[in-house]
Amino acid sequence: MAKKRKKGSGAGNRRPGETVRSRRARPGKTVVIVAVVAVVAALVWAGIVYDRKAESERLEAGRVADESVGETRRDTVTIKTSKGDIVLKLYPDLMPVTVANFEKLARAGFYSNLVWHRVEDWVVQTGDPTGTGRGGSGESIRLETHPKLLNRRGGVGMARGEDPDSATSQFYILREDASWLDGKYALFGYVVDGMGAVDRLVAGDMLLEVSVEQEPAGGR
């Protein structure tokens, strides 16, 4: 004769005193999990939006600096690199010696197939045919500066040695503001498009060619 099953024996392996209800997730716990997930998602989205805004402002820095110069003639220069094109605006009326020297070298093909020999967090530099940072065009120019042209992110200036009048062909582009250079180095233009390419450069990348489009005197 089969033994009579004891009352409650079909309850599985519950511990003494444990009920089925006590094993289920409490409603309050689910609400907390959903709230935490929502907060995390909101923070991530806010971070993405902030990063995009910061990046947009960062890329616009050179264009804003160019606009702050005011009404003056501007020449357009396109620098082709292995990381993309960089477009500059130069100021021949404000920096006649420096701009004339740069444009003369560009038209002569001097800047074709040169290496970006100096790449740091705050600056990139090229224009040396030897790729060592010690070479140049063989002709130096006198230092000139202008109070409207400040060393901000996107600024383009002539590199030089200890002698203020020793700049030849090497030039730099600023990734960050560098106010300590103001009045000491010939800043002669700003990047108005292509700061993304400037930011992507690494040591050894190539400057492929430089082209110049002059603006007629009296125009902008």
Short description:
This protein has 220 residues and is of the alpha+beta class.
Descriptive report:
The chain is α+β, with helices and mostly antiparallel strands. It contains four helices and nine strands; from the N terminus they run ααββαββββββαβ. It has helices at residues 20-23, 27-69, 96-107, 195-200; strands at residues 75-81, 84-90, 114-115, 118-119, 123-126, 155-158, 171-174, 187-193, 206-213. The protein has a nine-stranded antiparallel sheet. The model is unreliable at 1-23 (pLDDT under 50).
Identify the notable features of this structure and list them briefly.
4 helices, single chain, 220 residues, 9 strands, alpha+beta, 9-stranded antiparallel β-sheet, disordered N terminus, Cyclophilin, 30% helix
Structural class: alpha+beta
How many helix segments?
Answer: 4
**Biggest sheet statistics:** 9 strands, antiparallel
Helix % is 25-40%
How would you spell out the order of helices and strands? HHEEHEEEEEEHE
Q: Return the average pLDDT rounded to an integer.
A: 84
Estimated radius of gyration: 31 Å
Strand line-up across the major sheet: 3-9-1-2-8-6-7-5-4
The CATH class, by name, is Mainly Beta
What low-confidence regions span 5 or more consecutive residues with pLDDT below 50? 1-23
- What separation lies between the terminal Cα atoms? 110 Å
Shape, per Cα inertia axes: elongated
Tally of individual domains: 1
The fourth-level CATH homologous superfamily is Cyclophilin-like
